[in-house]
Amino acid sequence: MKLPICSTLLLLLLLTLSITYSKAQAQQPKKTYIIHMDKSSMPAAFSDHLTWFDSSLKSASPSAEILYTYKHVAHGFSTRLTPQEAHALANKPGILSVTPELKYTLHTTRTPQFLGLSKSTTLLPASAQQSHVIIGILDTGVWPEHRSLHDASLGPVPASWKGHCETGDNMNSTHCNKKLIGARFFSRGYEAALGPIDSKTESKSARDDDGHGTHTLTTAAGSVVPEASLFGLASGTARGMATQARVAAYKVCWLGGCFTSDIAAGIDRAIEDGVDVLSMSIGGSLMEYYRDIIAIGSFTAMSRGILVSTSAGNGGPSPGTLSNVAPWITTVGAGTIDRDFPAYITLGTGKTFAGASLYSGKPLSDSPLPVVYAGNASKSSVGYLCLQDSLIREKVSGKIVICERGGSPRVEKGLAVKLAGGAGMILVNNEAFGEELVSDAHLLPAASLGQKSSEVLKSYVFSSPNPTAKIAFRGTELDVQPSPVVAAFSSRGPNALTPKILKPDLIAPGVNILAGWTGAVGPTGLTVDQRHVSFNIISGTSMSCPHVSGLAAILKGAHPQWSPAAIRSALMTTAYSSYKNGETIHDVATGQPATPFDYGAGHVDPVAALDPGLVYDANVDDYLTFFCALNYTSFQIKLATRRDIACDPKKVYRVEDFNYPSFAVPFETASGIGGGSDAAKTVKYSRVLTNVGAPGTYKASVVSSGSPKVKIVVEPQELRFAELYEKKGYTVSFTSTSMPSGTTSFARVEWTDGKHRVGSPIAFSWT
Ligand SMILES: *[C@@H]1O[C@H](CO)[C@@H](O)[C@H](O)[C@H]1NC(C)=O
Ligand SMILES: *[C@@H]1O[C@H](CO)[C@@H](O)[C@H](O)[C@H]1NC(C)=O
Ligand SMILES: *[C@@H]1O[C@H](CO)[C@@H](O)[C@H](O)[C@H]1NC(C)=O
């Protein structure tokens, strides 16, 4: 909800700039560019790459300075150039590409926002090997004094570790310990774009002034802390997923955003330092793999055996809203858990609705208060959104105000109502948010309400001469069912970039998550919020991503020899997509069963993932073949992978045969209007399974949901594995009859030896 405002501001800023400059006819302003160089074409005259970079740069712009040099993510550097200089540089020898920097965002539903939750994940056996695993978190930094970062049960830092704790504002090497083993910051791109950091408002160091970074880091690998809660809510023992793993913070996101030159530098350094898992709850818009810095950086990371876990984005519930879809990345969507923070809203008629809230201050009076719809108490045409300064004091004073979601952070709406003299707030959902109940630590008594109850509430308020209501807060409720349900905000497939790869890969807890918080700001993140909390409850795919990063660290500890693809496969093929009663996991946005476009392979099940039986493995060569199947040129492949590859023009490369643990099968309805042929269309996908368990015979089974629209045949039906790491291939053919464009259908293929169930979702779509 924050995004549209930001981009509007940005647009205004750009417009203002362009007017000024066209008036002055001045040289265009400089921007940050990331330059990829062709390592192999360095002239022999240069003794090292840095002098070559510098000489190339100076030939196009005598005054330009290098911001960062990159070693792993790209062979190259970033710098500030005018568009003319960038153009000139792009034509110099040895330059592969000159790409303008982009701004990325954190994947919380909105930055200063809170929801409420705890997690129900089974405690896993702590493995001594886990303490050799290092998780790097690219985010807003870390609050190093946090209780969750104690290192009481940990041995010495792994000898292979090359990172350290950088000195900066309020932070130096004494702030790291055997849990937090590294903390670095990358601000050159940010400062080049927005000016020097003001140490009064923001620490120029890895210290977290926002809270997001401390939250994701402690979710992935926080130590065990008893008696954690937010104002007594969600109370209990707080712990990250991999309590024995080590963490390193790479601060690349600042109060003004995350810039790609800094992100690239962070990934580069994390690879150099020796992380095993890289967690990035960050994303930008979807673009070709060879242009996307997260995809490019992750490719190098993957090729070094580092598992990269990212958030799917908070663009749901609309279809095709994913970011971070590269097949060498693990893409994580968000679901709810079984904990709620109920608040009951009782109308003057006596009717009561269940809502949710993390409000913890003085309760409202027991007698009913007048209720007003914000849209009826504002001069603004969007008064119902309760934006700042939009409410008429005389109309809201002493009343409970009904505000609609959207347009501004939820806690900011609460503040707007409070400042206008309102007594309380009911935050109502429209259709897009459905029945999703987000809980917030509001500054005034407030609760959120699902769409159906919201409609009833509003029609009561619109039709009654003197409408009244009460709000009662009921703390924490456990064992809420059904759970998980897919969060409305969680970004959805289909994959707009590569439709034959299903994304997201899986879902994990991302709604109302309790984890560590910064000491710099209160739980709402609002400047007026003077409260201090060590734990906060927030939501987003930003929160689900570090759950999977931590679980991947557990798997890496248990199976150090597994590749990133094998670890992801284990997490995916053991994920569940139905409740114990057999019903498919629900989508909170619709109240209907969700689909693999929403949850991928399903909800993560870490205990099952430790022993998956079989995995779909993939190595660097498989990914290079994938690029050939996309018809990338050698040049594009080089940009994405830094490798010189020529695809064999005589060979047939197919995305259908890329060894992914799930299936996305788009059918064309080209026959279309008029006399299209009704002849059945068959497509064939092939896969290879690797045995990571005991010898055994696995049998295939196929389950279609609803009425089958596609005939599915697995060949062979049985695979016998005699040895560990033995590989066996199979094919699946899908035969479809004509379907109208826009149709979707789903199925599942499962291999089982009686003990393990190796499941893959299949998503059909007709375009
Ligand atoms: C590191 O920071 C701590 C706490 O802020 C301070 O007491 C200490 O003197 C600093 N150490 C160094 C070497 O700067
Ligand atoms: C209040 O707002 C609603 C929705 O915009 C509208 O239907 C209704 O007529 C308004 N009521 C008054 C009294 O203005
Ligand atoms: C790549 O090119 C081949 C041959 O022209 C074509 O059949 C195939 O659909 C293309 N693949 C993609 C992903 O565009």
UniProtKB/TrEMBL annotation:
<feature type="compositionally biased region" description="Basic and acidic residues">
    <location>
        <begin position="199"/>
        <end position="213"/>
    </location>
</feature>
<dbReference type="InterPro" id="IPR010259">
    <property type="entry name" value="S8pro/Inhibitor_I9"/>
</dbReference>
<dbReference type="GO" id="GO:0009609">
    <property type="term" value="P:response to symbiotic bacterium"/>
</dbReference>
<keyword id="KW-0964">Secreted</keyword>
<dbReference type="Pfam" id="PF05922">
    <property type="entry name" value="Inhibitor_I9"/>
</dbReference>
<dbReference type="GO" id="GO:0009610">
    <property type="term" value="P:response to symbiotic fungus"/>
</dbReference>
<feature type="domain" description="Inhibitor I9">
    <location>
        <begin position="32"/>
        <end position="107"/>
    </location>
</feature>
<keyword id="KW-0378">Hydrolase</keyword>
<feature type="active site" description="Charge relay system">
    <location>
        <position position="542"/>
    </location>
</feature>
<dbReference type="InterPro" id="IPR023828">
    <property type="entry name" value="Peptidase_S8_Ser-AS"/>
</dbReference>
<dbReference type="GO" id="GO:0006508">
    <property type="term" value="P:proteolysis"/>
</dbReference>
<dbReference type="InterPro" id="IPR037045">
    <property type="entry name" value="S8pro/Inhibitor_I9_sf"/>
</dbReference>
<protein>
    <recommendedName>
        <fullName>Subtilisin-like protease</fullName>
    </recommendedName>
</protein>
<feature type="region of interest" description="Disordered">
    <location>
        <begin position="199"/>
        <end position="218"/>
    </location>
</feature>
<dbReference type="Pfam" id="PF17766">
    <property type="entry name" value="fn3_6"/>
</dbReference>
<feature type="active site" description="Charge relay system">
    <location>
        <position position="139"/>
    </location>
</feature>
<keyword id="KW-0732">Signal</keyword>
<dbReference type="InterPro" id="IPR015500">
    <property type="entry name" value="Peptidase_S8_subtilisin-rel"/>
</dbReference>
<dbReference type="InterPro" id="IPR046450">
    <property type="entry name" value="PA_dom_sf"/>
</dbReference>
<dbReference type="GO" id="GO:0048731">
    <property type="term" value="P:system development"/>
</dbReference>
<dbReference type="Pfam" id="PF02225">
    <property type="entry name" value="PA"/>
</dbReference>
<dbReference type="GO" id="GO:0004252">
    <property type="term" value="F:serine-type endopeptidase activity"/>
</dbReference>
<dbReference type="InterPro" id="IPR036852">
    <property type="entry name" value="Peptidase_S8/S53_dom_sf"/>
</dbReference>
<feature type="signal peptide">
    <location>
        <begin position="1"/>
        <end position="26"/>
    </location>
</feature>
<dbReference type="InterPro" id="IPR034197">
    <property type="entry name" value="Peptidases_S8_3"/>
</dbReference>
<feature type="domain" description="Peptidase S8/S53">
    <location>
        <begin position="132"/>
        <end position="602"/>
    </location>
</feature>
<comment type="function">
    <text>Required for arbuscular mycorrhiza (AM) development during AM symbiosis with AM fungi (e.g. Glomeromycota intraradices).</text>
</comment>
<keyword id="KW-0720">Serine protease</keyword>
<keyword id="KW-0645">Protease</keyword>
<dbReference type="InterPro" id="IPR045051">
    <property type="entry name" value="SBT"/>
</dbReference>
<keyword id="KW-0325">Glycoprotein</keyword>
<dbReference type="GO" id="GO:0048046">
    <property type="term" value="C:apoplast"/>
</dbReference>
<feature type="domain" description="PA">
    <location>
        <begin position="370"/>
        <end position="455"/>
    </location>
</feature>
<keyword id="KW-0052">Apoplast</keyword>
<dbReference type="InterPro" id="IPR000209">
    <property type="entry name" value="Peptidase_S8/S53_dom"/>
</dbReference>
<dbReference type="InterPro" id="IPR041469">
    <property type="entry name" value="Subtilisin-like_FN3"/>
</dbReference>
<dbReference type="InterPro" id="IPR003137">
    <property type="entry name" value="PA_domain"/>
</dbReference>
<feature type="active site" description="Charge relay system">
    <location>
        <position position="212"/>
    </location>
</feature>
<dbReference type="Pfam" id="PF00082">
    <property type="entry name" value="Peptidase_S8"/>
</dbReference>
<feature type="domain" description="Subtilisin-like protease fibronectin type-III">
    <location>
        <begin position="657"/>
        <end position="763"/>
    </location>
</feature>
<comment type="similarity">
    <text>Belongs to the peptidase S8 family.</text>
</comment>
